Amino acid sequence: MSSHQPLGGKLINTQFVILAIFALIAAIFLAERFIFGLGSVTNLNNGYPWGIWIAIDVVIGTAFGCGGFVMAILVYIFNKGKYHPLVRPALMASLFGYSLGGMAVVLDLGRYWQVYNIFLPWYAQINSVMFEVALCVTAYTFVLWIEFTPVFLEKFGIENLRQKLEKVLFAVIALGVLLPMMHQSSLGTMILVAGFKLHPLWNTNLLPVLFLVSVAAMGYAIVTFEALLSSAGFKRPYDTTILNKLSGIMLVLLIGYMIMRFADLIMRGQLGLALAGDINGNMFIIENILFLIPIVILINPANRSKPRLLFIAAMSMLFAGAIFRINAYLVGFEPGGGWNYFPSVPELLVTLGIFSMEIMLYLIFVKRLPILHRVEA
Amino acid sequence: MTIKRRDFLKAMGGALAVGTTETQAFQREAKEMPPQAVGMLYDSTLCIGCKACVAACKQANDHPAEIIPEHQEWNEGTWDSAVDISGQTLNVIKSYQNGDLSQKDREINGFAFIKRHCLHCVDPSCVSVCPVSAMQKDPQTGIVSHNPDACIGCRYCVMGCPFSVPQFDYTTPFPQIHKCQFCNHLQAQGKLPACCDVCPTGASLFGDVRELKEEAKQRLAAQAGDSYEFQRGKLGGDRPSHVAEIPKYQQHLYGDKESGGTQVVYLAGVPFDKLGLPTNVPDYSYASISEGMQHTIYKGLIAPAALLSGLMFMAYRNRNSKDEEDKS
Predict the structure, then answer these.
(1) Dihedral of alpha carbons B67, B69, B70, B75, sign
(2) Are B234 and B313 part of one and the same domain?
(3) Are residues B272 and B305 in the same domain?
(4) Element (H, E) at B323
(5) pLDDT (0 to 100) of residue B217
(6) Which residue of A has its CA nearest to B15?
(7) B8 touches chain A (CB under 8 A)
(8) Does residue A367 lie within any of the structural domains?
(9) Which among B181, B114, B188 has a CA at the least distance from the CA of B148?
(10) CA distance B201 to chain A (A)
(11) ipTM of this predicted complex?
(12) What's the pLDDT tens digit per position in A213-253?
């Protein structure tokens, strides 16, 4: 008997219809993009070749999808079985984060019809950070689907195959831990080549480390966020003891992150730029206040068992990680030459539509597949 | 196009920032100038702004004239008014203007021309970042070319080029990256790149990079006001030369060291940042940092492989204990 069960309930309700409308709007703008070119719907230009479809849909989207691998580290690598109930929902969020992130890349590619070139050995360019990211993200998306296959097999009662898969799953799980560590840090390395175009507040060789540590904290935050939200939304009891422990791990990661972030800025002598009063300085301050909020909340152990405060801490952590990425990819990116970029309304709506689709898939999956942990009555 | 004061200040701010970054431990070795590197010496003081090179470039590369919106009403395409490089313009002449514009090649109350296109870096970022080898540097001539059949349109080259050279076309459903490829199709026929071929004053001078740099250093070493014989077309070629006075040069050969060195080098009478060339680039390629970092972390995939085996071992060991837990 499985320890997981589908929630059941009606699929189509008001929320679902609203989400579907957002997804539909996105689809219409995407059709326009494919017929008339990227410039017809986006504000991209040759100074800012990457916009929010990369910075949010891909970089932040996959970061939000890091719940799966950080939970896998806890449960399968450090053998903390008590976190097991949170693994499947986390894995599922990762599945969507990565599948949609991968899809978003293709939407943004100028010559998408040649996207398979990246997998052709004679075109491979192993010095390219993007090459590594592309291969890792693709491989990890496959790994996630394999890791998730037991859910389908369980649902459709294919016990035999499920048991066979479980035997080799350890290797897949190991890959599923390694791959995100590789490409999530590389997403930081990726922008270092911008050199002087990247503002000193974000232009540091520690960027790959900062990306990796912050993404791990974001992983625990998204698991916490999602557990609290699904408990509230589906009227299930809160797993506060587990979340309590998780938030402790998040706190350690966050403190480590902040020490590295500020030590680096002080050593490079760039911290003063935070007070420059310009967009970069101000965005830096916002970014780091958002990083500080979860630290301030979680440093008091009593707060770690209060769902409300945990929720605020997790939300703030997610925003911190997201703003950090937007700052590093867009705000702090200053190509000069009079170029400007602010996302167009259609660009924003496409991003909104992609995230809506993610939530729709989440709702379909938890209601129809054995994902959430069985609640003892 | 005029280069604004604001941009200059921005560039200065950046320069200060770079000044504090030292070379990094994991930086990979700089790339060497290819054995038969060809290049261009652009001498801004010789340029008269006729834009014959812009027109010739369009002809040689089959690009249409670009008409800026303000000209749409009356300009029927006879005057190419491109203000910057773009998907239709691989090479452009821009101007610096200050005060009453009374003297050429003077910073205050003066003006100057600058030609912008690919600098054909010795250690190009675009080649380093391209995931599908669409950007290639010829191992002999050093020409950086682009292969649209490989390109997936990710625009990492646009983002990574310190000189903002690769141009992506956002206005078409089937776009392409455009950049100067130094007329390699003409060079293959033994001809000169179109811009150097038509330049009436020798401001754009083609040749062997090493010889061009020597030539540039001679010009820098000469006394302002001295007579000097300026060549046209190709350095050491058979075109008639012309004699003129040595102008007041900025004592710097741009591209000699910038970004690890470039095969297109510049001489000018006004500071290079005023001409829109980034002066805050270090004398190494940014690619040597990001590549070096990536290779240091991965060490030829040995590090990830080791980590993976460790992870597999842990996951395998814990698999059994989890099974027991599930059964209980």
Answers:
(1) positive
(2) no
(3) no
(4) helix B302-327
(5) 96
(6) A196
(7) no
(8) no
(9) B181
(10) 28
(11) 0.92
(12) 999 999 999 999 988 988 888 888 877 788 888 999 999 99
